[in-house]
Amino acid sequence: MNRKRAVQVAVVASSVAGYIWLGYFTERASFPQVIGIYFALFGLYVLMLRSRVLSDSLKTIIGVALIFRLALLFMTPNLSDDYFRFVWDGLLTAHGYNPYLTMPSAFIHGPETVPGITPDLFSHLNSPDYYSVYPPLCQFVFGISARLNGASILANVVTMRLFILLAEAGSMVLLYKLARKLGFPPHLIAIYAFNPLVVIELTGNLHLEAVMIFFLLLAVYLLIAGRQVYSAASFALAAGTKLWPLIFLPLLIKRIGWVRSLRYFAIVGSGLVLLFSPFLSARSVANFVSSLGLYFRKFEFNASIYYLVRWMGYQITGYNVIAVSGPVLGAVSAAIIIVIAFRQKVAGWQSLVSNMLICITVYFLFATTVHPWYLTTLVVLAVFTEYRYPLVWSLMVILSYAAYRVFPYSESLRLVALQYSVVGGWMVYEMRKRRLTYPRVE
């Protein structure tokens, strides 16, 4: 075995061992162990990127990336408890109930019963007093898993994880194809394929951003290929998994023109209506919108600008002003995104990805809640830009898990400040180094 091959084997084996240790033998409350293993995995990740020991071919990259993910196939998510709600919604859907009409706290005390919907499962839900906020494509995945596996938590988890693994493999293939179309070295797909945050939060912790990312990449690929109708259909599937890709739509106007953009938007809208149609009613729409509104008006976690606004609000009013400041900051981020979309004089395909990265960054900086898995979208978009702050952020965001050291959960604002100081400093460094204040126009 030559030296390069020995290094490859050592790096892959060490990474697999780290993922197994973190995934199967680490509790969320054990914060020192969480960050210790995560930082070690990130160090191996940087080694892989800098030395390119695993960038021989697309097959090598995808093969190793899947090995990392398959190592977590049978783990029960240990850093997130959202999967209990996935199973809950899936059991409701599989038995003919509408998850947008059924509030867990009301259902568990009501006269109706569903096999698997038990007080024990209910006790693990983190938002039992809210209607589901997961869009319809998520509900289809949850429902299929529950129909196949009944009330078995592990079997549901493994089935949903298989959906994620398929999406991840597809995303890597699309990244390779997009790299060739946009003139980037194909080995850059390793930025996403090997990123520890992506592996742990999507495959490990079962977040369906993986499915959204696949359809988003497919939409971009089809758009560049000139197949706008199919691109819009794929974009609808992305938004039908997670809603925030909708913020990218204004970026298309200067690239394909107003007429084609309006047709594109109409197809996306029609696709979303079609996806929601099995659950659609006036009441379900109202419940979904109401629960979604709580994201801006009540939920807060690992925020940046919002926490500064919250502090100023306490100084002025003496109470938490999230009910007002959350929606206002959302409106401000939307206004900035629209300005970014319309200020370009020339708009090409390479700059589309850069602008998407900037827009989603703006959205997260003004958000009241930024969970670690949200940042996987930043990581995938960073592949086709000169920006590397998403990778720094994907490292520093692990500090947010300090909140789970105690129960009830309590954030360490010092660690939040440290996270955003490092990320913000890196952003400023990159912009000054490349003399960029906005994405370059191609």
- Overall pLDDT level: 93
Radius of gyration from CA coordinates: 22 Å
Given the helix and strand composition, which structural class is it? mainly alpha
Strand content: under 5%
Please report the distance between the alpha carbons of the first and last residues.
Answer: 45 Å
Q: Main sheet, how many strands, which sense, barrel?
A: none
Let me know the number of strands. Answer: 0
Number of domains: 3
Globular, elongated, flat, extended or rod-shaped: what is the shape? globular
Number of helices: 20
Helix content: 55-70%
Oligomeric organization of the protein chains: single chain
**SSE string, helices as H and strands as E:** HHHHHHHHHHHHHHHHHHHH
**Uncertain spans:** 436-442
Give me some keywords for this one.
single chain; about 450 residues; mainly alpha; 20 helices; about 65% helix; globular
Structure commentary:
The chain has helices at 3-24, 31-51, 58-70, 83-94, 104-107, 119-123, 136-149, 153-182, 190-193, 196-204, 209-224, 228-239, 253-276, 282-297, 305-317, 322-342, 349-366, 376-382, 389-396, 413-434. With 442 residues, it is mainly α. It folds into 3 domains: 1-206, no CATH class; 208-280, no CATH class; 299-442, no CATH class. The longest helix has 30 residues, at 153-182. Mean pLDDT is 93; it is low at 436-442.
Summary of the model, kept short:
The protein is mostly helical. The chain has 20 helices and no strands.
Q: Can you lay out the helices and strands and say which pair or pack?
A:
Blueprint: H1 3-24, H2 31-51, H3 58-70, H4 83-94, H5 104-107, H6 119-123, H7 136-149, H8 153-182, H9 190-193, H10 196-204, H11 209-224, H12 228-239, H13 253-276, H14 282-297, H15 305-317, H16 322-342, H17 349-366, H18 376-382, H19 389-396, H20 413-434
Helix pairs in contact: 1-2, 3-8, 3-10, 4-7, 7-8, 8-11, 11-12, 12-13, 14-16, 16-17, 17-18, 18-19, 19-20
